[in-house]
Amino acid sequence: MKATEFSYGESKPAQCSDAEWALRIELTHCYRLVDYLGWTEMIFNHISARLPGEENHYLVNPFALNYNEVLPSNLLKVGLDGQLVEPSEYKANPAGFALHSAIHGARDDLHCVIHTHTTPISAVTMKKSGFEHNDFYGAQLFGRIGYHEFEGITLFAEEKERMLASLGSKNILVLRNHGVAVCERDIRRTFFLLWTVQRAAEIQSAGRAMGGEDVVLQDEVRQKCADLTQQLIRNDGFAEIFFEAIVRKMLKAQKLV
């Protein structure tokens, strides 16, 4: 079974296009995966995805629902201001969408944004060195990270331009003393990037807890790793294969299939 073939028992509403319904299913998988892997922050944070053919409209989770309660049908359609553009029994959380709307509004190449602050990621964001790129996963992130200084809880529109300047043309925004936002051209690539960031943070945190001196990789090796990963994703469908496999694993583990 392909990921797009499992819709959590729901049928496509008549007014919903095939493209939108497929995106809703894929985004639901992404929310459920973040929950399955233990990367949630209770009801907080967002994963947003740009709707195909609809300018500045995005899908995002209903506020107050757990990630494992997200369904294709209850995902909210919002504008850049985080406000509903279609009626729903659920409320949006415009304040929490500030980070996402800033990225979506400025970067047409980024169609999905995931914001998390797991313990390993938050620990790395507190260190002046940030991600050190000396392990298998960290090396893949070389040259892809922008850093933004902590200004408090990310709620206010006035911070948007500064966050965008910190992100630049990169795909990962480290929010110092907070968490990360990872962004890519589709949900599957964004999830694969999040997986890589999470693993890099876990390994770096574990390494920092051990005694002894680290083997420091040369920038040439780091860049080679980062470039090769992107080549595999572009040419060999790495992210798509990975996403399909982990969705199958999750659905089977939860006895949904």
From TrEMBL:
SMART domains: Aldolase_II. InterPro entries: Aldolase-II_Adducin_sf (IPR051017), Aldolase_II/adducin_N (IPR001303), Aldolase_II/adducin_N_sf (IPR036409). Pfam families: Aldolase_II (PF00596). Coiled coil: none annotated. Residues 25-205 form the Class II aldolase/adducin N-terminal domain. Gene3D superfamilies: Class II aldolase/adducin N-terminal domain. Belongs to the aldolase class II family. PANTHER family: ADDUCIN, PROTEIN HU-LI TAI SHAO. This is Class II aldolase/adducin family protein. It comes from Herbaspirillum lusitanum.
